[in-house]
Every structure is written in C-alpha cells, then in structure tokens.
Backbone:
C-alpha cells in the first residue's frame, strides 16, 4: 500500500485546511485509517481515526474542530481542519492499518501563523 498525503500549507489562526490522502497499490476500504501529526520538537501524536464503516474518534485537542472522513470508492482519506491554532502546526501523516500491518504516507506540512 502506498499513501500520498497532500493539502498542507500556510494558514492564519482561525483558518481552515483540508488534507487528503490517496491510497494505491492495494485497496484500503476495509482498513482502519488515521491521521497523526508531529509538531516541531515533539513526538508523533494521534489526531483522528476512522473505521471502515465510518465510526470515528478524535484526540481531545481537535474534537469539534477537525473532521475525518473517507471515500471508499476511491480509497481516499480526508481531514477537514477548522479553527486552526498555531499548536496545530506540524507534519501530518496518514496511516492505514491493513491485515495488522501499518502503512504511512510521506507527510504534508501544516503551518498555522498567529
């Protein structure tokens, strides 16, 4: 499975971005998919997860501001990020867990200016 994340960029605090992650190689429609992020000088942390049938859960720091979704027809994962804060800055990675194996995208950079 290859994962390609894109959609990052520079945005002012309070703004919005939508990240996408396209999977190829093998279908991920039955996989758990997730977003993680790594801020400057920080460890990678969980952001949001979505099961194959659409059940979601979020880190407390993004609940109410971020929405994870997926389109199983084209193996794409999304993350809608609203009300962005400077502390949301970092590299965002998409993840797919398929048959107990984790796959990672290359990351897309999000920078939120104050």
Residues:
């Amino acid at each position: 499975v290859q994962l390609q994340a894109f959609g990052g960029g520079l945005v002012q605090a309070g703004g919005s971005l939508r990240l996408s992650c396209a999977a190829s190689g093998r279908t991920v429609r039955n996989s758990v998919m997730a977003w993680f992020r790594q801020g400057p000088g920080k460890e990678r942390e969980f952001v949001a997860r979505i099961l194959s049938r659409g059940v979601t859960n979020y880190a407390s720091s993004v609940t109410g501001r971020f929405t994870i979704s997926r389109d199983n027809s084209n193996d794409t994962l999304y993350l809608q990020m609203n009300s962005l804060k400077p502390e949301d800055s970092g590299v965002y990675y998409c993840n797919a867990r398929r048959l107990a194996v984790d796959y990672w995208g290359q990351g897309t950079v999000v920078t939120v200016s104050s």
